[in-house]
Specification:
The protein is an alpha+beta fold and about 170 residues long. The chain has four helices and six strands, in the order H-H-H-E-E-E-E-H-E-E.
């Protein structure tokens, strides 16, 4: 029976501090709700990322090399656990983009002439894929095009393999 007066005192103190107690309950409820929401959002974003990576065949491993013979590419493809290998030509070039006071550095990445599923596939945001036999056509990064005011049909200069070339934007992609 000695706990009975203590219980009454605790209840009296809680009643007197009801505003603070209500604030504590609200903060704890908001914290639990936020935790549950963030867990759900994390699961959703992870699923969306995996779906994007699967749909556009995003590579798990990247390797840089110079002048790799086709026989080496075939040897890498034969390694157990390797599902797909694709060799591409990648190099940096100087770009003369209208509106920029200095030359910009761009990265050219080769793509097949005819549209086909490939590793790190392109998701076209505007325009079209390049046409076979048209060396001056490019598909730009959507972010680069937006940052520099370039759109489908825009032209700009580039130094490719030591020679000046005019490039035409045929599409933007991510």
């Amino acid at each position: 029976m000695s706990a009975d007066p203590l219980h009454r005192k605790v209840l009296r103190d809680v009643f007197q501090l009801r505003g603070q107690m209500l604030a504590i309950v609200v903060v704890m409820a908001a914290g639990v709700a936020l935790f549950v929401m963030l867990r759900g959002m994390n699961a959703y974003l992870t699923g969306a990322q995996q779906a994007y990576y699967t749909q556009y065949r995003f590579a798990d491993v990247f390797a840089r090399a110079r002048r790799v013979p086709d026989s080496v590419v075939k040897q890498v493809a034969a390694v157990p656990g390797v599902e797909s290998v694709q060799a591409r030509i990648v190099f940096d070039v100087l770009l003369d983009v209208p509106g920029l006071p200095e030359a910009a550095t761009g990265r050219l990445v080769s793509v097949p002439e005819r549209r086909a599923p490939m590793l790190n596939d392109l998701y076209l945001r505007s325009g079209r894929y390049i046409e076979p036999g048209q060396p001056g056509e490019v598909v730009l990064s959507d972010a680069f095009a937006a940052a520099n005011g370039l759109a489908v049909g825009s032209r700009f200069g580039a130094i490719v393999n030591g020679r000046w070339q005019t490039l035409r934007v045929d599409g933007t992609a991510v």
